[in-house]
Amino acid sequence: MANTRKNLRYAAIGVLFSAFLFMAVRPIWTYERAQSLRLLIQGVSSRSVSIEGHKIHYYVRGPKNGSPVVLIHGLGGRAEDWSNLAPYLAKAGYRVYTPDLLGFGQSDEPPAENYSIATQAGIVNGFFDAVGLKQADVAGWSMGGWIAQKFAVDHPDRVRRLALLDSAGLRIPPDWDTRLFTPSNSDDLRQLEALLMPHPPALPEFVAADLLRKSAKSAWVVKRALNSMLLGQDVTDTELPGLRMPVLLLWGAQDQITPLKEARAMHALIPDSRLEIVPGCGHLAPDQCAKAFGPRMVQFLDADTLLPPTEQLLQGSI
Q1: How far apart are CA 144 and CA 148, in angstroms?
Q2: Euclidean distance between CA atoms 300 and 293, whole angstroms
Q3: Were both Cys, which of 70, 95, 185, 229 would link to 66 (CB 3.0–4.6 Å)?
Q4: What pLDDT sits at residue 247?
Q5: Which class in CATH covers the domain with range 45-313?
């Protein structure tokens, strides 16, 4: 009996050592699995549908009879990027859908696709059909905001209200090195982190190495999508004035990827829009500043009417 207990103890130590070793080698994989487990514990359902012959993965949470909201992630992102903001909507009674766009997250990566804004907007339209949505509130973040704009322009009857969070979409050339979105070394990664958020934390070398490995694997999809955007395909400058649904623009004041000048340009173009700015937040504001964005999103979706078009700085939001 004593030898059995000793062997079990050694076996447990071996399992723990192997787990820690794997975490050190693949910390991003470990983090993503932990994040998926957290969603499962929270009662979030992981599903997939077929759209144009491609598997599109998505999460859904909130009451089954709740008013639907579709959240669209950004370039290089995935459905889990909404994990901090989506609970605010679900708790308020909304049925929240967070799909992985084509080529990202757990969705298919077909090699022949161009991954343009128009292609992804078509995937969103197919997603509405596949899950049985006639109309929903739609929100998009960064590139996802651009896709949401295109979808709203092409299918205005399917969008009740539109929220654009630190969104791209206008014909304004970026004043930062777009190659950083596919970092190839630690210095690129540090520069990208500095663009994405104010005061980024120092990454341990083993985490940086794993981020670079993961980036290299998906770089071809990111580059293809980014190239179509840089060519000015599907820009919305001339189409935004035609939007007739209420639009909320939520922005991080320190955003360097899609800076405030772009928010203000969109606000000027969209007739029924309101711009709200969160101090101290960068491009990752919907994730890192969800305490500010979440309640404001709920207020916007719940309101019978949109407040008068204006620009507002949200105080004490972080």
Answers
A1: 6
A2: 10
A3: 95
A4: 97
A5: alpha beta
